[in-house]
Specification:
With about 240 residues, the protein is α+β, with helices and mostly antiparallel strands. The chain is built from eight helices and four strands; from the N terminus they run E-E-E-H-H-H-H-H-H-H-H-E. It has a single domain (about 30-225), classed as Up-down Bundle (Fumarate Reductase Cytochrome B subunit), CATH 1.20.950.
């Protein structure tokens, strides 16, 4: 039996699952396109990050050697490509699917209205700190009202912004002559390189927190990203 929940003000597809000990509710949290882009990006971001680190190691600093010695050393097992040319080939090859999946995902959010469940809205900002207190200071958990809480929405919104910055700055790094005016306005090639690296760092900072949240929310939360359906969601109980 399919119904619709409007507790959060957003329609959610719900089914009643017949169990031996009664009925349980399951909600369709992740549509198929969202799941496809999620898992595709998991692999793509890994390749982009490892090849990007190999590119960085060709000149492991920013600007005119800041500091004069190498800024940081990245172990070889975290890099991909073997050398600068090989890394660039991997990076450019996967830049296109990274940009494509991002455009498809954002377009789906905008056209379907799914963005209301993922993107943090201004009136939800006040809910970020209570959730942070719950996760990191072990304070009481605020009452769940929808699939993603404000802290999760902040994290997902940030990754969308990181992705946009990564694509834009990557294009400028690949075509600095063609976009010389934009590069100059943004501080020059070295500054663009910093922005691009910062976008990657943002993705890397997101991943551990994302995995922790998945673990804290249990197996049903993880399984829903494969099947789309989450059994016994607490915001429907």
């Amino acid at each position: 039996m399919a119904t619709a929940s409007t507790r959060s003000g957003l329609p959610v597809t719900v089914v009643a699952i017949e169990r031996a000990d009664g009925e349980e509710l399951a909600a369709l949290e992740h549509p198929r396109l969202v799941r496809l882009t999620h898992w595709a990006n998991a692999a793509i971001v890994a390749v982009m990050t490892m090849s990007g680190l190999q590119i960085f190691m060709a000149f492991p600093s920013f600007g005119p050697k800041i500091p004069e010695t190498d800024l940081v050393y990245v172990p070889e097992f975290l890099r991909l490509g073997g050398w600068l040319g090989g890394a660039l080939q991997w990076h450019f090859a996967f830049a296109w699917p990274f940009a494509l999946t991002g455009v498809v995902y954002v377009a789906y959010l905008a056209l379907s209205g799914h963005w209301r469940r993922v993107v943090l809205q201004p009136h939800e900002l006040r809910g970020v700190w209570p959730m942070a207190r719950h996760y990191f200071l072990f304070k009481p958990k605020p009452e769940p009202r929808e699939a993603y809480n404000p802290l999760q929405k902040l994290a997902y919104t940030s990754t969308i912004l990181f992705g946009a910055v990564a694509v834009a700055t990557g294009l400028l790094l690949a075509r600095p002559v063609q976009f010389s005016a934009v590069v100059s306005v943004l501080g020059g090639f070295s500054a663009i390189r910093i922005y691009h690296f910062a976008a990657m760092a943002g993705f890397l900072a997101f991943i551990p927190g994302h995995l922790v949240m998945v673990a804290l929310h249990g197996w049903n939360n993880f399984a829903s990203m494969w099947t789309g359906w989450k059994e016994k969601p607490d915001y429907l109980s």
